[in-house]
Amino acid sequence: MTILDQWSVKFQPDAEPVASVVSGEIVQFNTVDCFNGQIQSERDTMAHLDESSANPATSPLYVEGAEPGDVIAVDILDIRVADHGVCCTMTDEGPYWPMMELRSKIIPIREGYAHFNDVKWPIDPMIGVIGTAVADREVPTEWVKEKHSGERARSASLYQDQ
Q1: What span, in angstroms and rounded, lies between the C-alpha atoms of 60 and 146?
Q2: Are 139 and 149 in contact (CB under 8 A)?
Q3: Cα–Cα–Cα angle for 144, 152, 13, nearest 5°?
Q4: Longest pairwise C-alpha distance within the chain
Q5: What tens digit of pLDDT does each residue of 80-138 get?
Q6: Which of 65, 76, 83, 133 has the most CB within a 10 Å radius?
Q7: Would you give the DSSP letter of residue 97?
Q8: Beta-carbon contacts of residue 23 (< 8 Å; ≥ 6 apart)
Q9: CATH code, domain carrying 70
Q10: By 3-state DSSP, what share of the chain in percent is helix, strand and coil, each rounded to 5?
Q11: Are 148 and 131 in contact (CB under 8 A)?
C-alpha cells in the first residue's frame, strides 16, 4: 500500500508527485489539521498562525493514465482521528468577533467522543481538503469550493473533475 505523508497548500498543475498509483490501488493519506499543527496548546492562538501553511492537503499523488478532463473516483474507506482536536476563535468571523478575544481550546477525543469541559458529543470525522490539480492554474487549498475539490466525510465516494 502507498502511504503519503507530505503536504502542500496549493493544487499545482506542475507539482512533482510524491508517489504514483494505478487506478484501483488503495492509498493511505496521513493528514494534519487545518492549522498544520501550529495550535499545540491553549496559549497558541490564531494571532500566532502562519496562514501561508494553513489548510494543507496531503499530496501530490499521480494517478497513472489520468488526463485533464477525466473524472477520478475516490472512495474514502476509513478516517482515523487524532487524540485531540482544536477549536479557535477567529477575527473577522461571525457576528460576535468584535467582542471576543482570540482563544484556543484543545478538545480531547476519547472513544469516539469530543470532550469540551463537562460536555461531550459524538465526533463526525471528515478528511479536510481533497482535490485534483487544475490543468491551467495554481489554486490554494483553502479554495475548496471549486469543481475540482472539497471537504468530505467517511464512506463518501467522490468523483473529481480534473
Answers
A1: 18
A2: yes
A3: 45
A4: 53
A5: 999 999 999 887 777 887 888 899 999 999 999 999 999 999 998 988 787 777 778 77
A6: 133
A7: G
A8: 63, 64, 65, 66
A9: 2.60.120.580
A10: 5, 40, 55
A11: yes
DSSP code, position 47: G
Q: Is the pLDDT of residue 30 over 70?
A: yes
Q: Is-contact 125 81, C-beta < 8 A? A: yes
Burial class of residue 105 (count of CB atoms within 10 Å of its CB; 0-12, 13-18, 19+) = middle
114 forms beta bridges with 109, 121
How many independent structural domains does the chain possess? 1
Grid coordinates representing 105?
481550546
Span 31-65, pLDDT tens digits: 999 899 999 999 999 998 998 888 888 888 889 99
The gap from C-alpha 63 to its chain's centroid, in whole angstroms, comes to: 20
Answering whether pTM is above 0.85, one says no
pLDDT value of residue 67: 86
